[in-house]
Specification:
Blueprint (H helix, E strand, L loop, with lengths): L9 H22 L12 H29 L20 H8 L5 E7 L10 H16 L3 E6 L5 H11 L4 E6 L4 E6 L1 E7 L2 E5 L1 H4 E7 L2 E6 L2 H16 L2 H4 L1 H14 L12 H12 L4 E2 L6 E2 L3 E5 L2 E5 L7 H15 L6 E5 L25 H8 L3 E4 L10 E7 L6 H12 L3 E5 L3 E3 L9 E3 L5 H6 L2 E3 L3 E3 L3 E13 L2 E18 L15 E5 L4 E3 L2 E2 L2 E10 L5 E3 L29 E8 L33 E6 L7 H6 L3 H17 L6 H4 L12 H32 L9
Parallel strand pairs: 1-2, 13-14, 13-15, 15-16, 16-29
Antiparallel strand pairs: 1-5, 3-4, 5-6, 7-8, 9-10, 11-12, 17-18, 19-24, 20-27, 21-22, 22-23, 25-26, 26-28, 28-29
Helix pairs in contact: 9-11, 12-16
Length: about 725
Amino acid sequence: MRGDVPGRPARQHRSAVRDGGAVRERRARRARPARPGLLRRDHGDGHRAQRGAARAADLGSRAANAIALDVWLAPVRRARIDLTQDSAYSLSDSTRSILAGLDERLLIRGYFSDKSHPKLEPLVPQLRDLLEEYRIAGGSKVRVEMIDPTESDEAKREAKERFGIDPTPLRFATQTEQSVVNAYFAIAIEYGDHHAVIGLNEMIAVRAVEIGDVEVTLKNPEYELTKTIKKTVAEFSSVDALFASPGKIVDELTKQSGGKLAFTQVEPKGETEMRELFTKFGLRPYQDFFSGQVYYFNLLVQVGNHLVRIAVPQNLGEADLKTAIMDGLKRAAPGFTRVVGLWSPPAPPPMPPMQGMPPQEMPPPQSFRALRRALQGNYEVRDVALTSPVPDDIEALVLAGPASLDARSIENLDQFVMRGGALVVLAGRYRLAPGMGGGITVEKVTTGLEQAFQKWGITVEDQMVMDTRSDTFPVPQERDLGNGMMIREIKQVPYPFFLKIDGDRISSSSVITGGLAGSVMHWASPVKAETKAGDDEHRVDVLLRSSGESWLTTTTNVQPDTLKYPELGFPGPKDTDKKSSQVMAVSIIGGFTSSVAKPKDQAKDSADKDAAGQRLLEHSPPDTRIAVFGSSAFASDLLVEQLDSDFTKANVELVHNAVDWSLADTDLLAIRSRSAAARALTVEVKSRDRWIIGNVMIAGLALGLVVALALVRRAAIQPIIVQEV
C-alpha cells in the first residue's frame, strides 16, 4: 500500500519520507561514540574559547613588552643616526678636535628674532639643531644660548654693547602687505676676553630664481662656526703668554735629544736688526690689536746649512706648538722634507713705455697660486724654470700649462724623468686668450712636449671636447620686457666647453680620484696613453672621461650665442661629428725611454752630452710615474676663484692628489678627498621620463607580486573537514 499523504502529490510525499529517514540516520550516528582522529562538531565552542584565550595572552604579552621598552628608553632623551655617505649632518672630526682642545669656557649665543623675513624663518631651526650639536660635542666646555632680543630692551642693549650686534632691516612684500621688519640674525662667539660675530651675510646665500623671487639657503654654517671659534681661541692668548710656551716645549725636546737641540731666543732691537730680519728671512713684526704693542713671534729651525721657517699655528696651545716645531725639525732634517717643483707660464715682456709713463708689466697667461698654496700644506714648493737642470732634491714636478718649451727645457725635463722624477702635467692645448673685448676667446697652444710624449706613448689631441653633460657659465643676456624695453641679466647657462665629470665617468679604483665627488674640465683636449711604448710596458689608469654625448671641435670662438642657439649656445655637433666618450686624464706607471738621448750604438761622445758635459740618461726606472690632464685652465686661478662651482674648486684637490700619487705618498688622500661638494642624485633631462616610467613599472610589479602572493597563500589554505560518524 502506498503511504501517500492526502492533499500532497505522491512524488513529494516520497521525498519527504526519504529526507526524514536521512535525518533519523544522522541523529543515530551522533549518538555513536566518536572514533579517534575525527573532529566532532559539538567541540567547536571549546576550540573557539581556546583560540580567544591564546589571542588575549598574545596581546597582553605585546603590551607588556611595549611598556617595558618605554620604561627602558625613558632615560634616553635624544638619539640620532646620520645615514648620509659623508655624514653631512654630523660634526666633522676637525670641529670635534677643536672643541675637545678648549681650555676655557666657550659661549655660543644665537640672536634670532621670532618674527623675521619669511625666507629666513625656515633657516633658524637648522641653525638651532647645529648649535645643539656643538653643545653636545663640547660637553661642559661649551654653553649654547638662543635669545630673541626683540622681547626686551635689556637684551637689545646687551647685544649692542657686548657684541656690537644691531638688528638688520629686512624688507618683504606679500599680496596683502608691504613692510620692513628689523630682525636679528647673528651668532656671537665668546672665549675668554675675546669675541667674534657671524653676521647675516656670512651665513646665507641668496640666489635669484625668477623675477621678484629669490632662494635663500645656508652657506656652510659649520665651516663658519668652526673657523670663527678657532680664530677666537687663537686670539685669546695674551702677548706675554706667547713667549712662555715655546721655551717650555723646547726645553722638553732638548732633554729628549740628549743636548743635540739648542734653543736661542732673539729679541730684535732697532730698525737695523728689523730690516736685516726682513731681508734675510722675510720676517715682519706683529702688532697686538688691543694694546698696540709690536712684537716678533717667529720660529726658525736650522739643521746644518738648511734653514726652515715654521708657520706659527693659530691655536697657540702647547700641543699645537709642539706639533709645529716637530714638523719643522722633520722638514729641516735630511730625508724628511719632500720637495715639489712647479713650472707655470712666465709673464710676457712688459709693454713698451708710453711717453711720460713707466713700462707696463704684463700678467702671465695663467697663474696657479691656489694650487701652490694647497701643495705648500704638505710639501716644500719651489719654482722651476727648466732653463737649467732640475735640482736633485726635487722629487716631483708639476707642469702647469706648458707652452712653447724650447729644446733646452725639453732636455732638462726629459732627464728629470729619466732619473726617476715624477711628473704631473696639466697639458691643455687651449687656454683663455687675453683680449680687450667683452667676448670669450681661447688660443691654441703648442706645448713643446709633443716629441717627448710621442716617445713615451702619450698623445694630447689638438681638438677641444664639447659635451651636453656640462657645467654652467655666467653669460649676460638681453631680455625683452615688451614695449621696446630691454634689460641685461646674468644667467647661468649650460656651457658645453665645461665638461662636468661625475658618477661612473670618474674612476673609483684610482687613489687619485676615488674620493672625489666630481670634476670640471675647462676647454679640454682628449688624452691617450699606450699600454706599451717601444719595449716598455705601462700600467695606464683612466682617471676622467667625458659622457657618450661629447664630440670634438677645433673652433676658438667659445662665446655662447643663446639667442641664436638657445639650447647649447652653439650650433651643436654636425652630421659628420662622431659622438663618443673621450678620455680626459690618465695616470701611467712604467719605464720611459729618453726622447733626447741616443742609443749607445748610435751616440757619439761629443754629441750625446748635456750642457754640463754629463752623458744623458737613456732610460728611466721601471716604476716612474706620470699623470697627464687634458686641460690647464681647470686648475688655474681665474676659474677656481671666479666660478661658483664645487666641482671646479675641487680641481685643485684633484691635482694635489695626483702629486701625492706621483710621490707614492697616499696616506692623507682619503682624508683630504672628503669633498664638500654636494653628492646630489641628478638625472639628465633626456632620461628623466625613462626613469619615471621605470619607477612606475617597478611599483606596479611590486604591487602585483604582493597580490599574487596573497592569492597563492589563500589557495594554499586547506579547510578543516569535519567527518561525521
